[in-house]
Amino acid sequence: xxxxxxxxxxxxxxxxxxxxxxxxxxxxxxxxxxxxxxxxxxxxxxxxxxxxxxxxxxxxxxxxxxxxxxxxxxxxxxxxxxxxxxxxxxxxxxxxxxxxxxxxxxxxxxxxxxxxxxxxxxxxxxxxxxxxxxxxxx
Length: 138
Prior knowledge:
Blueprint: E1 8-13, E2 16-23, E3 32-40, E4 45-48, H1 56-97, H2 101-137
Antiparallel strand pairs: 1-2, 2-3, 3-4
């Protein structure tokens, strides 16, 4: 089993991760994890743990993980948004085909306000993109 374990383990947390060096080469042949750093993805900060200095290899591994994690989170954001489009379609179908008057009364105002807010933001952002595109072309 120890041959299959990675050299580093990243315990994911909301804004990044705790970084551990995995050690299986000890007398008890136990898995030991020594925390070496804390990563904050939001601000790009990497703090060595316990007054230690990080080696070039450790910094490279951490940097690679941060890049992979950032890419994964960006992909998840897009996936979540595409699911929101599906939910809007499901909601429209539900409202048209199955919803009772009482159910519609319970949800209509909340849905309309959320959709109005979203539409306002999307229209403003699209207009900003169009103006920037015109500025770069003109």
